[in-house]
Specification:
Order of helices and strands: HHHHEHEHHHEHEHHHHEHEHHHEHEH
Helix content: 40-55%
Number of helices: 19
Number of strands: 8
Largest sheet: 4 strands, parallel
Radius of gyration: 21 Å
Structural class: alpha/beta
Strand content: 5-15%
């Protein structure tokens, strides 16, 4: 190790035995699932490095930022306005939530029939296994589902928590609620950081975050070529890392990937043979190290070419308007942007179907996997709408409900292979 990470983890208060077990399990899994992919883009080496230091160098950077007077804000959701955090000299980071390693710890307090993502993040904090949790000055939660909303009450007893109320509809009164929530969030972040939001710092932050979204869109839209110049698994990894890495460095590195992919496309070079069956994935977001669905697809002679989810199109679909001049106008631009996210928490939610149709048509996908985490009520209930949408358009679709365990991989592979056979005939 270049640095004494165990000492850093100890000072953070991590439970080192369980943390070591987690890292010992994730390392070999990553090597098996990612390093062996044929013809990977050279620019992916940076993202391999990020994963190798995800609990080391990146945590040191966060602690160094705090040492200089900055704040670290932990998040789980796209509705947390990262532009405000960045403007106030904060760093917004995603929190550990994508593995069943911590689920048994959570189930000592929470019900078993609860979304795996919620149990995962709560177990990581309760078990003191995630250094991002222990580095965060505050966790910003949101009311996108009842499970999260109630577990934030438990979390607030063991870590500072601030909860934003996300409206469930998109009418004028709902926009007014969200506008008030944004103003309340600004006030809370100003108190936490000791800084004041201004026209200058917010305008600069909007441009930085927009640049990240544009870089991600470049990478993901280049996948729409046949042959695909990058695997869906690597594209998902880039998307996941965007929630952890240094903002400006990540943007540069994502653009470097896109530059390389453009050259591959021009040369007709891909990571799969031309004509490989192409699928898109829709549904519940996938936090690191939840790569199971993509791995099953891409070890079954098919490619994932798009994701209609928070760890995908929903994040980089739009940018925030940069033409606003006054602080009030800039805040209104943030209201516009975040109210255009088509999360399953909204009712009605027809625009989400529009997003699915856009991605399906433009990515060249031949079928859809609607992948939902067990007990994820909003996405499980919207599954029916997505099925009807697909049936009306004769789009092959398979709906799968899964969790973070490996116990259903065989069953999942059987269903995915059946979809691949359907789109190949």
């Amino acid at each position: 190790m270049a640095e004494d990470w165990p000492q850093m983890w100890k000072e953070l208060g991590l439970e080192l035995e369980n943390h070591d077990k987690l890292m010992a399990a994730l390392g070999p899994l990553y090597l098996e699932w990612f390093a062996g992919q044929p013809n990977r883009p050279e620019a992916m080496r940076y993202f391999d490095f990020v994963i190798s230091e995800v609990h080391g160098l990146r945590i040191k950077e966060l602690l160094d930022h705090k040492g200089k007077g900055g704040a670290v804000v932990g998040t789980f959701c796209l509705f947390v306005p990262e532009e405000v955090v960045v403007a106030l000299d904060g760093v917004a980071v995603g929190l550990c939530a994508g593995t069943d390693f911590s689920v048994p710890i959570a189930e000592a307090e929470l019900p078993r029939n609860l979304c795996p993502l919620i149990k995962s993040f709560y177990g990581f904090k309760r078990g003191k296994i995630c250094p991002y949790f222990e580095s965060a000055d505050v966790v910003v939660g949101e009311t996108t589902c009842d499970g999260k909303k109630k577990v934030y009450e438990h979390l607030g007893k063991i870590h500072p928590v601030y909860v934003m109320e996300v409206p469930n509809k998109k009418g004028p009164a709902d926009r007014e609620l969200w506008r008030a929530e944004l103003n309340n969030f600004v006030a809370a972040m100003e108190e936490i950081t000791g800084n004041k939001l201004s026209e200058d710092n917010l305008a600069a932050a909007v441009k930085k975050v927009n640049a990240k979204r544009r870089a991600l869109r470049r990478v993901h839209e280049l996948r729409w070529n046949d042959p695909a110049p990058i695997s869906g698994k690597d594209a998902l990894l880039i998307m996941q890392i965007s929630f952890y890495d240094d903002l400006e460095r990540f943007t540069r590195k994502a653009d470097e990937v896109a530059d390389e992919l453009e050259k591959r496309v021009a040369a007709g070079e891909g990571v799969f043979p031309a004509g490989t069956p192409r699928l898109m994935v829709s549904g519940t977001p996938m936090a690191i190290p939840n790569w199971k669905v993509h791995h099953v697809v891409e070890t079954s002679a098919a490619a994932v070419v798009a994701e209609e989810m928070c760890t995908g199109f929903r994040y980089y679909k739009n940018t925030v308007n940069e033409d606003a001049k006054t602080l009030d106008e800039m805040k209104e631009a943030l209201v516009d942007h975040y109210m255009d996210i088509n999360c399953a928490c909204f009712t009605p939610n027809e625009p989400r179907l529009d997003d699915i149709e856009y991605l399906y048509k433009n990515s060249g996908a031949q079928g859809i996997i609607h992948a939902t985490l067990s007990f994820c009520t909003p996405y499980l209930l919207e599954q029916g709408s997505v099925k009807r949408f697909a049936a009306e358009r004769d789009i092959p679709l398979v709906a799968v409900e899964t969790d973070y365990s490996e116990g259903d991989v065989g069953q999942l592979k059987t269903r995915v292979e059946a979809l691949i056979e359907q789109v190949s005939t």
